[in-house]
């Protein structure tokens, strides 16, 4: 039955005024919608009403709110295509209001709706537009059929205009607020990203920051050096769920070649945004796995965003957000925020990496600058690209002079230096080759190893001149010691062999001499061996002295007395000792030193002559001189004779037996008694060894 | 092994060997054992007196130590070779120096033998005899070359 609306114009204006007042007070979209749907619908004398808006992509209509419709009806109309054959769709497409007087008319105009039930009567859909832009529509349903007169129509349109303005304003306000929140979030995130160079930790905290404000779930995956996907962080408000997510990841590791989701984002560098996760996609992922189905159902995944972390054209990782149990499905603004967040995170990661690389580079440069070994980098053309200070020291060629020049020009001996050096592959065990080379007029021994790689060759140089000299000294010592051992050994062995001859009859005198020879030469052997051992102990600082107060003159007298029994007759051995002040010394060691000095004096006086041992006290110290008129010591060698293994005549061609250790041992012992041992000598005229010990009085 | 190939005691002229060594023990060993092989032994305790004795006595062979105070064995060998009167006296080095370089030097200085201490004095007489026999057979140069080719005795 069709009726004509009975209210008069004044009444309508009053009702509109009331709605306008309410809408003016409303701030949020919810308040606006509430005002429209309660007061607006009542003002229009409608039974029910709804507000729909065009979706962001302009493809669909989303129902924002409704009143008076049965829930089962509205359930089907939460969202529908803008090109659906419905009055709302048409209004949004055309921007023109539609007035329908009855269900019959509706079904005639929209046959597709015929099966939507025959209930209902008059229906009005008016566009919601601001500045000519239609962004939604309002439907009003009445409880009776109505033939809408122009005035009435005008009233509905006016109501819609008010509603549109209020709604647009509130939505703008909400959008601005959301924008502010996003900006706040981005500011917080940026601050976090800038807070540390430990980007792994920072990204984990960033994921935490995203939940629950931005999403229910946030995950960050990085591309490892080997291209593998590495899950860096998973965040959810509930730590239990995070644990569970990691277990899930273990059980269902991502397929790097997958055509969707994170693997694809990492591979292509393109974001993947699913405002609504299509059920078929989940089905495809679940397959026949009932356990997985249960998990996916429990997760309640609604919407997902996966954006790449890209810096300087390289995809470093991906940030993914999921809206599930609490968060509303993502909108374009969420996606844009995620893109911006990912961009900033990528820059932060890139900066941190660059910083680390720069730091590593700086550390490497420091290491190369201070390492004791020479390091040389040649490019494939043999041009010097690195020449560290140690190399400069070894070769005598400065870095400035070497860099950028062919190495053969920089060091002419380079060919000689490296010709026998095997070029190894990276990672091989080094096989340094020691070669002699004359650089700057000095012969140096350099251990060289080389590694060849794609970009050229790197050489390590080690100056082993000192080691080699020491090695040579040692081997010389071994040779010398063996020479020294050979003569007494020859005597002992020869004497025994001779004594055992049965074909000859030795005279009694010879027989006695052989026995004596065995005894004295064996003693000599023991003495040499003792010196070698003592030198070793002195080296290891394992010699203990027993310092007591003793009379140096008495010790000197004892030394002369025992020496006089075996010096050659050509030697005249004299003691020149006054009563000396006592000294603190180890008497046995002092005796040993004096015996050695006297023996040396005798040995180096092959032409005979006087050997004097003089003891005198002087200014709180005691001075003991041993002088001879023998061969003497060339000036250049006087400072060296106390060196271990040093022999006055290394070739020993003029030499007198000795282990090369006697004077070394003497000086070491004297210094351990707080004394000094020095020498003055003139070749051909003799030597004077002076031992000074502090007096105790 | 003594006796075999050694000079027969009482033969018309006994071999005369000069031993130059600063070590009394080595001189004693040589004296007793060479005498047992029927040789006459002269002794010098340093290079200088060794040279003097060699010039004066013209021994059949010199057993020469290297490391001696004053004039060393190398110098003695060099001076003997430089003197027309003594250059033909065969020199056998008897030394503790066992390096290849030393043996080469001994060879260069014209030695006909190189004995490294310790040595067996019992066979020294045979050794000297064998050296002298080979020299008489004209093998002096060969003996010299054998020094650094490793054959010591």
Q: What would you say this structure looks like, in words?
A:
- The complex is a heterodimer of chains A (697) and B (153).
- Chain A has 697 residues and is α+β, with helices and mostly antiparallel strands.
- Chain A has 22 helices and 26 strands.
- In chain A, the strands form 6 sheets. In chain A, strands 4-3-2-7-6-5 form a 6-stranded antiparallel β-sheet, with helices on both faces. In chain A, strands 14, 15, 16, 17, 18 and 19 form a 6-stranded mixed β-sheet that branches.
- In chain A, strand 14 (374-379) and strand 15 form a beta hairpin.
- The longest helix of chain A is centred in the N-terminal third of the chain and has 44 residues, at 150-193.
- Chain A is rod-shaped and about 165 Å long.
- Mean pLDDT of chain A is 86; it is low at 650-656.
- In chain B, helix 2 packs parallel to helix 3 (73-82).
- The relative contact order of chain B is 0.18.
- Chain B has one domain: Response regulator (Rossmann fold, 3-Layer(aba) Sandwich), CATH 3.40.50.2300.
- Chain B has helices at residues 24-36, 47-57, 73-82, 100-108, 124-136, 140-148; strands spanning 16-20, 40-44, 61-64, 91-95, 113-116.
- In chain B, helix 1 links the parallel strand 1 and strand 2.
- With 153 residues, chain B is an alpha/beta fold.
- Mean pLDDT of chain B is 88; it is low at 1-12.
- The longest helix of chain B has 13 residues, at 24-36.
- Chain B is built from 6 helices and 5 strands.
- Chain B is globular.
- Chains A and B meet through helix 17 and helix 18 of A and helix 1 and helix 3 of B.
Helix/strand layout:
The complex is a heterodimer of chains A (697) and B (153).
Chain A: E1 2-3, H1 9-25, H2 29-43, E2 48-54, E3 60-67, H3 71-74, E4 79-81, H4 87-94, E5 98-100, H5 103-109, E6 123-130, E7 133-141, E8 145-146, H6 150-193, H7 199-210, E9 217-223, E10 229-235, H8 239-251, H9 261-268, E11 272-274, H10 279-286, H11 290-299, E12 303-311, E13 314-323, H12 332-370, E14 374-379, E15 384-387, H13 389-395, H14 399-402, H15 407-410, H16 414-418, E16 423-424, E17 433-439, E18 442-453, E19 456-463, H17 465-499, H18 508-539, E20 548-550, H19 552-563, E21 571-577, E22 583-585, H20 587-603, E23 609-618, E24 621-627, H21 635-638, H22 662-672, E25 676-682, E26 686-694
Chain B: E1 16-20, H1 24-36, E2 40-44, H2 47-57, E3 61-64, H3 73-82, E4 91-95, H4 100-108, E5 113-116, H5 124-136, H6 140-148
Parallel strand pairs in B: 1-2, 1-3, 3-4, 4-5
């Amino acid at each position: 039955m069709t009726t004509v609306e009975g209210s008069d114009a004044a009444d309508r204006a009053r009702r509109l005024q009331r709605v306008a007042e309410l809408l003016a007070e409303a701030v949020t979209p919810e308040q606006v919608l509430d005002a429209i749907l309660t007061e607006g619908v009542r003002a229009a004398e409608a039974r029910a009403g709804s507000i729909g808006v065009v979706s962001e992509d302009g493809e669909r209509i989303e129902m924002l709110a409704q009143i008076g419709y049965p829930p089962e009806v509205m359930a089907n109309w939460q969202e529908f295509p803008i090109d659906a054959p419905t009055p709302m769709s048409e209004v949004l497409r055309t921007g023109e209001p539609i007035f329908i007087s009855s269900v019959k008319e509706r079904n005639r105009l929209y046959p597709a709706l015929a099966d939507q039930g025959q209930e209902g009567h008059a229906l009005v859909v008016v566009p919601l537009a601001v500045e000519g832009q239609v962004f939604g529509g309002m439907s009003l349903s009445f409880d009776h059929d109505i033939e809408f007169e122009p005035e009435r129509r005008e009233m509905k349109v006016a109501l819609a205009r008010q509603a549109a303005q209020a709604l647009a304003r509130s939505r703008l306000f909400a959008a601005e607020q959301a924008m502010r929140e996003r900006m706040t979030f981005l500011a917080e995130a940026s601050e976090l990203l800038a807070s540390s160079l430990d980007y792994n930790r920072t990204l984990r905290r960033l994921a935490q920051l995203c939940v629950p404000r931005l999403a229910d779930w946030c995950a960050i995956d990085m591309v490892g050096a080997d291209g593998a996907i590495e899950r860096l962080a998973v965040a959810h408000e509930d730590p239990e769920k995070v644990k569970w997510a990691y277990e899930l990841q273990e059980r269902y590791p991502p397929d790097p070649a997958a055509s969707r989701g994170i693997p694809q984002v990492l591979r292509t560098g393109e974001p993947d945004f699913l405002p609504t996760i299509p059920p078929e996609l989940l089905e495809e992922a679940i397959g026949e796995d009932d356990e997985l189905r249960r998990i996916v159902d429990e997760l309640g995944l609604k919407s997902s965003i996966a954006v790449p972390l890209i810096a300087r054209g390289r995809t470093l990782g991906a940030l993914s957000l999921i809206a599930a149990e609490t968060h509303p499905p993502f909108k374009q603004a969420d996606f844009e925020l995620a893109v911006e967040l990912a961009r900033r995170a990528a820059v932060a990661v890139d900066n941190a990496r660059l910083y680390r690389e720069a730091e590593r580079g700086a550390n490497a440069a420091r290491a190369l600058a201070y390492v004791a070994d020479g390091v040389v980098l040649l490019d494939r053309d043999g041009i010097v690209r690195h020449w560290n200070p140690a190399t400069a020291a070894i070769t005598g060629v400065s870095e400035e002079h070497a860099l950028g020049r062919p190495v053969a020009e920089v060091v002419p001996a380079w060919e000689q230096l490296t010709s026998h050096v095997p070029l190894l592959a990276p990672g091989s065990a080094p096989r340094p080759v020691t070669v002699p080379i004359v650089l700057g007029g000095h012969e140096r021994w350099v251990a060289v190893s080389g590694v060849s790689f794609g970009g050229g060759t790197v050489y390590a140089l080690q100056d082993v001149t000192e080691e080699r000299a020491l090695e040579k000294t040692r081997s010389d010592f071994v040779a010398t010691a063996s020479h020294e051992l050979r003569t007494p050994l020859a005597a002992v062995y020869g004497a025994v062999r001779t004594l055992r001859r049965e074909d000859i009859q030795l005279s009694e005198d010879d027989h006695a001499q052989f026995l004596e020879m065995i005894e004295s030469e064996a003693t000599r052997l023991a003495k040499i061996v003792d010196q070698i051992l003592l030198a070793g102990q002195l080296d290891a600082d394992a010699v203990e002295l027993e310092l007591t107060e003793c009379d140096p003159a008495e010790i000197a007298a004892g030394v002369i007395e025992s020496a006089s029994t075996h010096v050659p007759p050509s030697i005249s051995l004299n003691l020149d000792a006054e009563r000396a002040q006592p000294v603190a010394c180890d008497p046995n060691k002092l005796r040993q030193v004096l015996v050695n000095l006297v023996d040396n004096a005798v040995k180096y006086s092959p032409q005979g002559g006087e050997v004097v041992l003089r003891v005198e006290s002087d200014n709180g110290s005691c001075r003991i001189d041993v002088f001879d008129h023998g061969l003497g010591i060339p000036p250049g060698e006087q400072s060296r004779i106390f060196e271990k293994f040093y022999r006055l005549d290394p070739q020993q061609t003029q030499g007198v037996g000795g282990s090369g250790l006697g004077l070394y041992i003497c000086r070491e012992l004297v210094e351990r008694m707080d004394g000094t041992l020095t020498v003055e000598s003139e070749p051909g005229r003799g030597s004077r060894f002076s031992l000074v010990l502090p007096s105790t009085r | 092994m003594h006796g075999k190939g050694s000079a027969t005691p009482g033969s018309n002229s006994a071999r005369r060997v000069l031993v130059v060594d600063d070590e009394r023990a080595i001189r004693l060993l040589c004296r007793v054992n060479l005498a047992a092989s029927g040789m006459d032994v002269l002794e010098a305790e340093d290079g200088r007196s060794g040279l003097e004795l060699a010039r004066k006595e013209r021994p059949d062979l010199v057993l020469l130590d290297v490391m001696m105070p004053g004039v060393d064995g190398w110098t003695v060998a060099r001076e003997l070779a430089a003197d027309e009167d003594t250059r033909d006296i065969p020199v056998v080095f008897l030394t503790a120096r066992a390096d290849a370089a030393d043996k080469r030097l001994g060879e260069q200085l014209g030695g006909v033998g190189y004995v490294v201490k310790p040595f067996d004095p019992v066979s020294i007489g045979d050794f000297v005899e064998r050296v002298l026999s080979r020299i008489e057979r004209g093998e002096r140069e060969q003996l010299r070359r054998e020094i650094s080719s490793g054959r010591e005795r």
